[in-house]
What does this fold into?
Amino acid sequence: MSSFITSMGFDVLFKGTNMIRLLQGLLVALKISLISVVLSIVLGIIIGMLMSLKKPVINVISRIYLEIVRIMPQMVLLFIVYFGATKALGLNVSATAASLIVFTFWGSAEMADLVRGSLISIPVIQYESSYALGMTKLQTYLYVIIPQTVRRLLPLAINLITRMIKTTSLVMMIGIVEVLKVGQQIIEANRKTSPNAAFGIFATIFLLYFLACWPISLLSRYLEKKAA
Amino acid sequence: MDPILKVEHLHKNFEDFKALEDVNLSVQKGEVVVIVGPSGCGKSTFLRCLNGLEEIDDGKVILDDKVINPGNANITKERQKIGMVFQSYDLFPHKTILQNVILAPLKVQKRDKEDASKEALELLERVGLSNKKDQYPRQLSGGQKQRVAIVRALIMHPEILLFDEVTAALDPEMVREVLEVVLSLAKEGRTMVIVTHEMAFAKAVADRIIFMDGGRIIEEGKPEEFFEKPKTERAMRFLESFEY
Amino acid sequence: MDAGAISQYFPLYVEAFFLTIKIGWMGIALSLLIGVVGAFVLHFKVPVLSVIINVYVELFRNTPLLVQLFFIYFGLPKVGLVISADKCGVIGLGLLGGSYMVEAIRSGLSAVPVSQTESALSLGFTKRQIFTNVILPQAVISGIPAVIANVIFLLKETSVFSAISLMDLMFTAKDLIGLYYDTTECLLLLVLFYIVMLLPVSALGSFIEKKIRFGSYGD
It folds into this structure.
C-alpha cells in the first residue's frame, strides 16, 4: 500500500505542510470567486431589471455587453485587463484586481441574463390578476412577482457559483499563486525525491475542485426540482 | 355470432390501488360501446388495457380469438388491428399532416408510398382537411388535429377503434366537428369502444352504454334505458351531476 | 498602434488560429460522440454503464478544464500514459464537453412526452421504430440550443490550451507580448481572431434558437 502511494506520487502530500499549502491555494481561488459572485449577483440583478424594462438604448448596450461575454473567453478578458490596461491606460492593475474585474464583468452579464429571463417568464396574467385584486404595483412585485422570480432564479444563480469557482482556476495564468500554482511549486520542489508527484498532486487538486463544486451543484439541482 | 373483442375477469392494480376489478365485456362486430362514469373510475385505464398500453394483472383480453393482454409477444402486430385516438391527439410535431398519416402505413405495414398517400388524401378529404396536408400540426386547431389523429388511426384499417375522451381537450365550438366524424364512422358500421363525457353524444352514437365506477362495471344497457331510467342509484347520481 | 507589428504578427496568429480551430472542433466532435453514447445509456437505463456515465458526468462537470488538462498532460505520464499536447487538448476538451453534451442530449430525449410513444405504439410501431422515427427527430430539435451553447462554451475553453504549451491563439499572444512588448497590437489580434472564431457560431445559435422557439416546425 505505501509503495503504491509513493509510486503514484501521493506521498508528497504528507510531507511538511504541503497539504495545508494546497488547501490555502484553493482558498485563494475560492476567495476570488466568492467576492466576484457577490458583486455579480448584486450588479446582475440591477442590470437584469434594467434590461427587462425594454428601453431601446439599454437594449442595444446590453445586447453588445452580453454578446462580448458570450463569445470572449474569460482568459482573453483577463489578459486584456491585466496586460492591456497597464499598457494602454498606464494603470497598474494587480493580478487579483484584474481577476475580480473580469469575473464580475462576466458574472454580472450571466446573472443579468438569468434575472431578465426569470422576470419575463412570469406571465402577464400574474400582474393583471394582482391588479384586479386591488394590489398596487409595489405590492404586486413584492408579494407576487419577486417570490416567483426568486424561485426560478435561485437554482440558476447557485449554478453560476460553481462555474465561477471553476473559472477562477485561470488566475494562475496571470501569476496569482492559487492551488494549481502551489501544486506546480510542490512538484518542482520535490522533483528529485518524488518524481511522480505530478500525478498525486494534480489528482488531488482535481478532487479538491470537485469537492468544492459538487455540493453546490447538488444544491442547485435540488432547488431546481423543487421549483419545477 | 362470436364477439370480436372479449374481456374476461380483467384486474389492474397501480401498486396498492385497484384501478380495475373483475371487468368483463364482449364487443360484437359493428357494435358501438360507449363507456361513461365519473373521473377516476378506471374507464381510460380500461381502454389502455385493451391495446396493451397497460399490462394487466389478471384476466384476459382476447381479440379475434387471440389473447393480446397479458403478455403477447406479437403485441406490435396485433395493435395494428386496434386503432386508438387519444385526448391529447399526439400528432408527431416534426411531420406534416400527410406525413403524420402515412408514417405508420409506410414503416409498420411497409405499404407503397404512392398508394398510402392516395388513401391518406381521400381520408383527409373525408374529414375536410385535405387542404392542410402540407401544414404542420401546430398550425392546426385542436379540432383539426383531432380529426387528423382519427384519420391516422383509420388508414391502418383497424378492426376496432378506441376513442379515449377525444373531445376533452377541445374548445366547445370544436367538439362538434370531431363528434360528427365519430358519428359518421358509427353509421358506417365500424366497431368502436368510446370513452366520453359528452352525454348527448353518447346517447346518439351508442348501441350499448357501460357505466363504470370505482374500477367496476356497475350497469350496462341500451342508451335510451340507461339515460331515461337508470337501474342503479350510482348511475342516477352520476347522471344528475350533468344537470343544473 | 503599430501597423507594421500587426502585419508582422498576423501570419503567426493565422497559424495559431487554425491549430485552435482544429483541436477545438476535434474535441467538440469527441464530446458529441461521448454525449450521444452517454445520453443513450442514461435514457435506456443500461445497468452498470449508467452508473459509470453518471460518475463521469459529475466529475467532469464539477472540475475546471485547466485542472483536467494538467492531470492528463502532467499527471498521467507518471503512471505510464504519455499523451502529446495536441491529443491532450482534444481528449481534455472532449471529456469536459462530453459531460455537458450528455446532459444536453439526454434532456432533449426526455423532453419528448410519453404520450408520443403511446400513440405510436397504438399505431403498431415497434420500440425501435418509435425511437428512430418519433423520439430521435424531436429530441434533436429540442436539444439543439443546448448543444450549440455547449459548442460556444467549448470553443471559448480552448483558450486554456496554452497552459499545456499548445501553440494556440492565447499562447501566441502571450509569447509575442513577452518577446516584443507590443501589448496593444497583440491583444487586438487576439480579440479579432476569437471574434472570427466565435461570432458566426454565436449568431447561428441565436438564429436557430429563435427559429425553434417561435417557429418550431414548419415555417
User: Anything to note?
Assistant: The mean pLDDT of chain A is 88. The CA atoms of residues 95 and 174 of chain A lie 6 Å apart.
